[in-house]
């Protein structure tokens, strides 16, 4: 893979062939991997905004979720509930986050883990920085988590291999997240979060600390 393509993938998310992307859209799966920079007027600071989103049908699935940089669970800013499944499930605002994205076609999986943060540039708009944590292509999992083996969701993940045939897995700190994102990519008619959880978002916690100070 050329460096320019790798950079684009790290910034924007998995590159899915146009025809496949059209089929995903026709199936009603709306997965939104982009991470964007936003400005909070009241706090006068820049943040990152992202959406946990996606879901699955029996044939394929596409899901993206977010974590803290240390691999721990991140709290959502707010939930998003909709009559339509397989869309946006929650919004997160943070200064730094890790994106976990998975695309599944039948029993073949692609997995991308990337880290994103803001690099300050004085009083100017900060720059979005991104780093590749892990990329797994054409992984396989025989278990049909979207159907007869649904009971195993949350405890199964695909196996990935290098070009030379050796097993390739993300660092152990990401294991729980990979279990959850695999579940999301197999969750037919998904209407709930798999990675983000309720709690005090980082942005709210920072605001409370500033108020106390």
Mean pLDDT: 91
How are helices and strands ordered from N to C? HHEEEEEEEEEEHH
**Could you tell me how far the N terminus lies from the C terminus, measured between alpha carbons in angstroms?**
49 Å
Compute the gyration radius: what is it?
17 Å
Broad shape:
globular
Protein structure class: alpha+beta
Number of domains: 1
Question: How many beta-strand elements?
Answer: 10
Strand content: 35-45%
Count of individual helical segments: 4
Q: Helix coverage percent of residues?
A: 10-25%
Biggest sheet overview: 8 strands, antiparallel
Low-confidence spans: none
Summarize the structure.
This protein is an alpha+beta fold.
What are the salient characteristics of this protein?
single chain, 213 residues, alpha+beta, 8-stranded antiparallel beta sheet, 4 helices, 10 strands
Q: Can you tell me about this structure?
A:
This protein has 213 residues and is α+β, with helices and mostly antiparallel strands. It has one domain (3-212). The chain has 4 helices and 10 strands. Strands 1, 2, 3, 4, 5, 6, 7 and 8 form an 8-stranded antiparallel beta sheet that branches. Strands 9-10 form a two-stranded antiparallel sheet. The termini are far apart. The mean pLDDT is 91.
């Amino acid at each position: 893979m050329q460096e320019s393509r790798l950079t684009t993938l790290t910034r924007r998310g998995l590159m899915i062939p146009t025809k496949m992307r059209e089929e995903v859209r026709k199936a009603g799966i709306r997965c939104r991997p982009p991470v964007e920079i936003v400005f909070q007027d009241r706090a006068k600071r820049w943040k990152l905004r992202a959406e946990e989103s996606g879901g699955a049908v029996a044939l394929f699935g596409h899901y993206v979720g977010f974590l803290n940089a240390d691999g721990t669970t991140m709290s959502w800013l707010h939930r998003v509930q909709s009559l339509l499944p397989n869309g946006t499930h929650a919004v997160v605002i943070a200064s730094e986050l890790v994106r976990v994205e998975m695309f599944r076609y039948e029993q073949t999986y692609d997995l991308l883990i990337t880290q994103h943060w803001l690099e300050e540039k004085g009083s100017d708009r900060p720059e979005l920085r991104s780093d590749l944590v892990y990329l797994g292509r054409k992984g396989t999992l025989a278990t049909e988590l979207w159907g007869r083996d649904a009971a195993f969701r949350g405890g199964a993940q695909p196996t990935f291999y290098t070009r030379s045939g050796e097993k390739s897995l993300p660092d152990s700190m990401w294991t729980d997240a990979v279990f959850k994102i695999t579940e999301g990519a197999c969750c037919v008619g998904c209407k709930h979060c798999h990675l983000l959880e309720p709690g005090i978002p980082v942005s709210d916690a920072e605001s409370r600390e500033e108020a106390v100070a």
